[in-house]
Amino acid sequence: MAKKNRRSFITSVLACVAFVAAAIWSWDLPVEDVLAYLVLLLVFLLVIIAAALGGGALLNWLRRRRK
């Protein structure tokens, strides 16, 4: 069962990469724009991860404080 999930993930990633490549090729999308969007996406992802870590740390601190 795990192999099927891994295969599905790899297929999804390859489909996404193919879509981005098709957008660059067929719509003459500048590669600089794609890289800028990628950097923006990674920054937002890091903000979400940091907020989740901060929230988890806060919940952990509150739980320990009650005991």
Fold topology:
Blueprint: H1 2-26, H2 31-66
Please provide a written account of the structure.
The protein has one domain (2-66). It starts with a helix and ends with a helix. The protein is built from 2 helices and no strands. With 67 residues, it is mostly helical. The protein has helices spanning 2-26, 31-66.
Supply the key terms.
single chain, 67 residues, mainly alpha
Proportion of helical residues: over 70%
- Which descriptor suits the 3D outline? elongated
Compressed to H and E, one letter per element, the order equals HH
Spans where pLDDT lies below 50 across 5 or more residues: none
Please report the number of helical segments: 2
Tally of strands: 0
Biggest sheet architecture: none
Mean pLDDT over the full residue set: 90
Q: How many domains, as an integer?
A: 1
Share in β-strands: under 5%
Radius of gyration: 19 Å
Structural class by helix and strand composition: mainly alpha
Beginning-to-end CA distance, first to last residue:
41 Å
Keywords: Membrane, Transmembrane, Transmembrane helix
